[in-house]
Amino acid sequence: MYTPIGTAKLNNVDPQAWLAYVLARIAEMPQTRLPELLPWLWKAEPQQVLAA
User: Which residues of 13-29 are buried (b: 16+ CB within 10 A; e: fewer)?
Assistant: First the structure.
């Protein structure tokens, strides 16, 4: 767990919020779209995250 949390911190993303978002959506995402859940891409779409 240290690596994903550390990566989120290095990308100036709140690790708890990002991990909650990922865990809530990972099951419904097709495998080809999983890279969208990476912290540096998650940070780039804050309005989408807040609306979800």
Answer: bebeebbebbeeeeeee
Containing structural domain, residue 25: 2-51
Q: What is the pLDDT of residues 1-52, one digit of tens each?
A: 778 899 999 999 999 999 999 999 999 999 999 999 999 888 655 545 555 5
pTM of the model: 0.72
In whole angstroms, what is the distance from residue 25 CA to residue 48 CA? 13
The angle subtended at Cα 37 by Cα 32 and Cα 33, nearest 5°, is 15
How many structural domains are present in the chain?
A: 1
